[in-house]
TrEMBL record:
Keywords: Cell membrane, Disulfide bond, Glycoprotein, Membrane, Transmembrane, Transmembrane helix
Organism, as annotated: Hemibagrus guttatus
Protein name: Tetraspanin-10
Pfam families: Tetraspanin
Keyword Transmembrane helix annotated: yes
Localization annotation: Cell membrane
GO cellular component entries: plasma membrane
UniProt record similarity statement: Belongs to the tetraspanin (TM4SF) family.
Assembly: Interacts with ADAM10.
GO terms of molecular function: enzyme binding
TM region(s), chain numbering: 87-109, 130-152, 164-183, 302-325
Keyword GTP-binding in record: no
InterPro entries hit by this protein: Tetraspanin/Peripherin, Tetraspanin_EC2_sf
């Protein structure tokens, strides 16, 4: 934009002059003259046939027309770099913005579908897993939209905010990975407590019930350490007067579907009263905590590759943003320098 403004206000030295000059009678000898530390292109248009009767006004016009603006280098490669950086950053942030909005919509859909905002359910809203989707959706959407607008408009403030927030998130993820690797025993105990809490509230919280059933069916496990852990639930406890006493959920069953079509809710009745040899043909004996540990060990390479890829994308985005910020700052300084040099040139060529 600044180059276009300069081309409108000041003629370039390669543009033709209004009067055609003969190469024989009026040769143009271009040279470089330095004034106040700034280089200028000068043209000596003096000729041997020029008489001493020229007026002072004519000499002043000749002097002004012979000088042009300071030497300005074109940066086509720099402009191309800025263009590529800007639109690569815009495209990546736009895609992640769509992902964030989809996550946010999923979270709100889950909350509305379960009527979590009803008066009688507000007490348990804080532990609703759908709030995690809402939080992640809001964070991802705001962050990526900031990057989108900042890249598209080349807004230094928005890009600086985006890069600083992204740097904090990358540092937090690296710190969490280090903590998770260093405190494996503590995380195991935390996971055990969370699973026992989910088993205790199995009938009361539909979200925890869904998560527990998916884990037990997917990993073919039952309870935390073994199937007898379901005694912590008041309905499956052997002292309970209900029909589910000493039982386990249907998701613990080896074949929870009756005839392969209908969910058999009574397949785990009285399973805790069976010995392990009799129970192994009906339910899964092993606990889910060990199954989760084995699943992580088995897929550790895939988990590492995915984690490294996600972290690498964020670091690459941070590098691109930093590079774009440097280019924007460099262009701003160059535009200011050209304007300053132009003002100095005009003031030095003005009437004394």
């Amino acid at each position: 934009m600044s180059s276009f403004w300069l081309s409108k206000r000041i003629p370039f030295f390669w543009k033709p002059r209004s009067k055609i000059q003969d190469d024989v009678t009026r040769p143009l000898i271009s040279k470089v003259t330095t004034r106040n530390g700034t280089q200028y292109h000068a043209t000596d248009i003096s000729t041997e046939s020029q008489t001493n009767s020229s007026s002072s006004n004519h000499d002043e016009q000749t002097k002004l027309s012979s000088w042009t603006f300071p030497c300005i280098k074109t940066h086509s490669s720099s402009d191309l770099t800025v263009f590529l950086l800007k639109y690569v950053l815009f495209t990546s942030n736009f895609l992640f913005s769509v992902l964030g909005l989809a996550t946010l919509g999923l979270g709100f859909w889950g909350l509305m579908n379960k009527e979590s905002f009803a008066q009688e359910k507000l007490d348990g809203l804080g532990t609703d897993p759908m709030l995690l989707f809402v939080f992640l959706g809001v964070l991802l959407s705001l962050l990526c939209l900031t990057g989108c607008v900042g890249a598209l408009r080349e807004n230094y403030c928005l890009l600086r905010t985006f890069s600083a927030t992204l740097l904090v998130l990358v540092a937090a993820q690296v710190l969490m990975a280090i903590v998770a690797y260093s405190l494996q025993d503590w995380i195991t105990e935390l996971l055990r407590s969370a699973m026992l809490m989910a088993m205790t509230r199995y009938q009361d919280d539909l979200d925890l019930r869904f998560i527990t059933d998916e884990i037990q069916v997917g990993l073919q496990c039952c309870g935390v350490e073994n199937y007898r852990d379901w005694e912590v639930n008041q309905y499956f406890n052997c002292s309970s007067p209900g029909v589910q006493a000493c039982g386990v959920p249907p998701s613990c069953c080896v074949d929870p579907l009756e005839n392969g079509t209908v969910w058999n809710s009574q397949c785990g009745l009285r399973a805790q009263q069976m010995d392990e040899f009799s129970a192994q043909s009906v339910i899964f004996l092993g606990g889910c905590l060990g199954s989760i540990s084995r699943w992580i060990s088995l897929h550790s390479e895939v988990i590492g590759i995915v984690t490294a890829a996600l972290l690498g994308v964020q670091i690459l985005t941070l590098v691109i943003t930093t590079r774009l910020l440097d280019r924007i700052q460099w262009n701003t300084i160059q535009a200011w320098q050209r304007k300053h040099d132009l003002n100095d040139a005009q003031s030095s060529l003005g009437p004394k």
